[in-house]
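We emphasize that the prediction below concerns an isolated chain of 254 residues; any contacts that depend on oligomerization or on bound cofactors are therefore not represented. The input was used exactly as deposited, without trimming of termini.
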Amino acid sequence: MEYTVQKLGEIAGISTRTLRYYDEIGILKPARINSSGYRIYGQQEVDRLQQILFYKELGIKLETIHQIVTSPTFDETKALADHRSQLLDKRAQLDLLIANVEKTILSKEGRMTMTSNEKFEGFKQKMIDQNEKTYGKEIREKYGDDTVNKSNAKVKNMTQSQHNEVKRLSEEVQTTLAEAFKTGDPSSALAQKAADLHKQWLMCYWSEYSKEAHENLAQMYVDDERFTMYYDKETPGTAEFLKDAIYVYTGLQK
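Result of the prediction step, given as a token string:
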């Protein structure tokens, strides 16, 4: 079945202007242009649009989506499986937060009591789940279950002020790294500040610091596309820049 730009826009719930823009930037070309000059889309284009919208829903920038879906190695079936996994994770996180809100309501009504730790349980578990998803398999393979389990326990025992500090550091790493990237110099003062902030953020999870472990983690950001995508979602090349900055910071690479 084929669709005009207007019909596809209606089906997908997006504007014809957006579809025309996707055509202009090359992320979604129509299958053909008919004799009247109208863009015509087929099933292949419908499937690609679905992928684009999935990625947008996950908060990935259009520039990065373009690189992903136009890559010769792009696997549509694998991408759909990844989308499903991430959406299930989102649902689980929401269910946990909803349960926490419901407990809080009961507490406010005097029907149950909540400890301070319980009040922030949902937020802490969300952090653990996100870390497991982002780093879990590879970190467990590199450092063992005991190290990861200790890290998770550390998160669960965080006070609210410690939890807030983790969020603040995470945001400061991102903003500082973005500014440092503009310099193009991983040895610059700003880049080294980003590396130090990254270390501070890690120490919210790690029981002890190791320069070798820091470097290994930085290398993983580059070697695994899932890690790379996280840091490159705003600006491609950021993960590589962070790795280089950390290598300068640790001083182990000669």
